[in-house]
Specification:
This protein is an alpha/beta fold. Helix content is 28%, strand content 25%.
Length: 350
């Protein structure tokens, strides 16, 4: 038997009901794998009115699935049956302020919802427990730290990112392993860049311990000094770097209709060779080198490399994927990280 308060229902709200014998909804769009039934079945409400059951399906939020939800002819509310939850190894706890749905074995909170009057509603858009939301979005954004995620929320930069302050005191286990690093160098002040293509920061990483599926061993990273936009190129050989840089400079100058004025790199032989040197001299591009064994002098791109590699390692560790997927992981990290940096459109507009 189901007893509901009077008033206009919200179609997006589900109610946890201890007196309801079945999960049910009148909105077919909520259900996955909804299958019609061949026999006549109905439900009886608190006013003795009956409604026909048209079929059964499942509802899911990506973390857990509620099975055998009845698609009913004419209910004005979406109902979650406490007894059916308990039959599926879940526990339901009602308090003065809220309701909790927990996994019986692990005691993990799956749903945490505030009480509203005499009812315990669930908004399906907010059905994830807050802690789980934090971890979910941290993984979606390539293991980005929560400080940056909160900045994305505050600036409303990502569609679908919940309007919550995400916080978690426990360090992600994958990040703990993937982001181990040496002590940082004392920062060195960097000259300001006032116009597009005034300065490009360049670095080559590698060789990697594991070759990618495509046979790549090196990462060429270019950071745009004006906005910190980043390009990443994957190379088989270190000797490919000069030609890759020449091709990139030609393309970016053509696209932005501006000349590159300076590039900054370390003293690697891939950047100190006749091919690249002749090209830069012909173009009138100044080449600044950092001092030997002083990576902090090329700190902009060095920090970018560290961010890309740490995030990629964390992704592979969490997903338990082989190391030869590092190219895909770094590419994904670069794409995601541009969300909170300046976009290429900003780069084009200067």
């Amino acid at each position: 038997m189901v007893v509901l308060n009077a008033g206009e229902p919200n179609d997006d709200t589900w109610y946890i009901d201890s007196g309801c014998s079945k999960h049910m909804t009148g909105n077919r769009n909520y259900l996955h794998d909804c299958k019609p039934i061949q026999t006549n079945q109905d439900v009886t409400f608190g006013n003795n009115m009956k409604a026909k059951i048209k079929g059964y399906g499942n509802i899911t939020n990506g973390r857990f699935t509620i099975k055998k939800v009845a698609f009913v002819d004419d209910p004005k509310h979406n109902l979650i049956s406490v007894s059916q939850l308990c039959d599926n190894n879940l526990e339901v706890l009602f308090t003065k302020q809220r309701s909790l749905i927990m996994d019986t074995k692990t005691k993990d909170v799956i749903v945490d919802s505030d009480r509203a009057g005499n009812m315990y509603p669930l908004d399906m858009d907010l059905i994830f427990a807050p802690t789980y939301i934090s971890w979910l979005w941290q993984r979606r954004l390539s293991h980005l730290n929560f400080g940056y995620i909160n900045k994305l929320i505050g600036d409303d930069l990502v569609r679908g990112l919940p309007l919550l302050k995400l916080d978690n005191e426990t360090l992600c286990a994958a990040c703990e392993k993937g982001k181990l690093s040496k002590s940082t160098h004392k920062s060195i002040s960097e000259s300001s860049v006032s116009e597009p293509l005034e300065l490009l920061h360049i670095d080559l990483c590698g060789p990697a311990k594991t070759q990618t599926i495509q046979g790549k061993n090196y990462i060429l990273v270019v950071v745009y000094g004006f906005s910190r936009f980043t390009w990443v190129f994957f190379l088989r050989l270190k000797s490919e770097a000069p030609e890759e840089m020449i091709k990139f400079i030609k393309q970016i100058e053509l696209k932005l209709k501006r000349p590159v004025r300076r590039i900054r790199s370390d003293n690697g032989l891939e950047f100190k060779n006749n091919t690249l040197d002749s090209f830069l001299k012909d173009k009138g591009i100044e080449h600044n080198f950092s001092a030997l064994s002083t990576p902090q002098q090329n700190g902009v791109v060095e920090r970018r490399n560290r961010t890309l590699c740490e995030a990629a390692r964390s992704m592979l560790i969490f997903a338990d994927l082989p190391q030869y997927f590092w190219e895909e992981a770094i590419d994904t990290t670069r794409d995601k990280s541009q969300v909170f940096k300046q976009s290429f459109r900003k780069l084009e507009n200067g």
